[in-house]
Design goal:
The chain is an alpha/beta fold and about 450 residues long. The protein is about 50% helix and about 20% strand.
Length: about 450
């Protein structure tokens, strides 16, 4: 017969007593918060874990409780010291009492917390993130991108309701110079543990159409200083460092510099400061344009003055030169004219004498010949004229017949009688075998054209 049989309550009670005897004091325990919940009564329930440093696998797990009256003191104390609220992902050093309840089992009752341990861990993780990015060669990659001369197309990553976003928009839109900007908001969560993933999601959307933007702005305002460590996230920092566009940050802090600020193209203290920087860059370009315009105007004015001086000089020199040339050539021209006149007179005189002699010799015989030929010429003239008239009348009649035939064969006349002409690919369609279903035909009618599509050609053999 079995002896020493215990009920479950008796067993748990024995365990409780044993634990109380084995762990009578409070103990400082390190662990990572994997889950944290606060119920309506203000009690804080924490799940602590420990991971293997090599494999990152969970090797221990325990439930911890901070009663409401204790949490009201420890929570603000931790946040004031570390700059962060107690949340999942933080490593903490807790003073705990070991408890075992008959109904709820094993748990750790938190009595105190050492924020300096968490500060050290956060600093260590931040340093590790920076070292990792530097080792990968991407830490300052975004800074190496050229900043646009005129950053007018701006992609903003922020919360639509954030005060910092509104400050940024007001400053940029209502600038003193009348500059206009194309601003597109990509909403993201800017507080809490979801912030890194939300920011990465917004950046990926921008990267998908990066050619539409000149610069990316990440701004935040009104958030607690305690939440800055979320911007030390490695994945977020790596994404920003390798982003194809310059990234400006204004997440509203002065004392600390999260990794996001380090990898960004330029870090500014506030959203308003980011807007001011963009306006300054635009103003700088505008001033350069004014300077260039002034230089061009001065250069053109200088060239015009030089050309005017040259024209003035030429206007004086050219008339003098022309007069000199005219004077030089006038004497030569007069001499040439005189020589030509003399030679011409000589040639005319010789020609007259020659002609006079020839006329005298041939005068009488020429007159007789012309007398004989004159009557014959008149007869030929009459015959030629009559023959020409008959030929023209005959060919005029043929021309009229040809014109009538051409008019009857005019395609437009045939179309007006109800006929049509069909074209395929610009050629007259003469047989249905030349087309197949789907071909597009153009049919010309008397008053226009009709487009049709072949469905079934009519085969004359069928």
């Amino acid at each position: 017969m079995r002896t020493n049989i215990l009920s479950l309550f008796e067993l748990n009670k024995t365990i409780q007593d044993s634990i109380r005897e084995a762990f009578p004091d409070t103990y400082w325990v390190t662990g990572e918060i994997s889950e944290l919940k606060i119920n309506a009564s203000g009690h804080c329930y924490i799940e602590l874990i420990e991971k293997d440093s090599l494999t990152d696998k969970i090797i221990a797990r325990a439930r911890a409780i901070i009663w409401a009256y204790t949490y009201r003191m420890l929570g603000p104390y931790f946040e004031l010291t570390t700059g962060r609220t107690l949340s999942a992902g933080l490593k903490v050093l807790l003073s705990v009492s070991v408890q075992f309840h008959e109904l709820y089992g094993f748990s750790l009752l938190v009595n105190d917390i050492d924020p300096t341990y968490t500060i050290g861990d956060l600093a260590r993780r931040k340093a590790e993130t920076i070292a990792r990015l530097e080792k990968e060669g991407v830490l300052y990659m975004n800074r190496e991108l050229p900043f646009p001369l005129v950053p007018q197309r701006i992609a903003v990553v922020s919360s639509k309701t954030a005060a910092g976003y509104q400050d940024f928009i007001d400053q940029l839109v209502n600038n003193d110079y009348g500059f206009r900007y194309d601003i597109t908001l990509f909403p993201a969560v800017m507080q809490g543990e979801e912030t890194p993933s939300s920011l990465i999601g917004a950046l990926e959307k921008i990267a998908g159409k990066a050619e539409k933007y000149d610069v990316v702005v990440i701004v935040r305002g009104g958030g607690a200083q305690s939440e800055l460590s979320i911007f030390d996230d490695y994945r977020l920092a790596s994404h920003v460092a390798q982003f194809p566009l310059p990234v400006l940050t204004g997440i509203g802090h002065e004392k600390d510099e999260p990794v996001l600020d380090i990898v960004a193209h330029r870090r500014l203290k506030t959203p308003t400061a980011v807007a001011g920087f963009i306006i300054d860059q635009t103003l700088l370009f505008d001033n350069r344009l004014d300077e260039a315009a002034d230089k061009i105007s001065d250069l053109v004015r200088s060239i015009i003055n030089e050309e005017n001086d040259l024209l003035a000089d030429l206007s004086v020199r050219i008339p003098l030169l022309v007069r000199s040339l005219l004077h030089e050539h006038s004497a030569s021209l007069e001499k040439t004219v005189t020589e030509l006149l003399v030679a011409s007179n000589r040639m005319l005189s010789a020609g007259k004498n020659y002609l006079a002699g020839r006329i005298s010799e041939t005068g009488h015989s020429t007159l007789r010949f012309l007398a004989r030929k004159s009557s014959r010429t008149e007869i030929y003239s009459i015959l030629i004229a009559s023959t020409a008239r008959n030929y023209l009348e005959k060919n005029k009649h043929r021309l009229e017949l040809s014109q009538n035939t051409i008019a009857l064969a005019d395609p437009q006349k045939l179309l007006e009688k109800g006929y049509s002409i069909t074209y395929y690919n610009g050629q007259v369609l003469k047989t249905c075998r030349s087309v197949v279903p789907g071909n597009v035909l153009i049919t010309r009618l008397a008053d226009g054209k009709v487009q049709s599509t072949v469905t079934t050609p009519n085969d004359p053999s069928s």
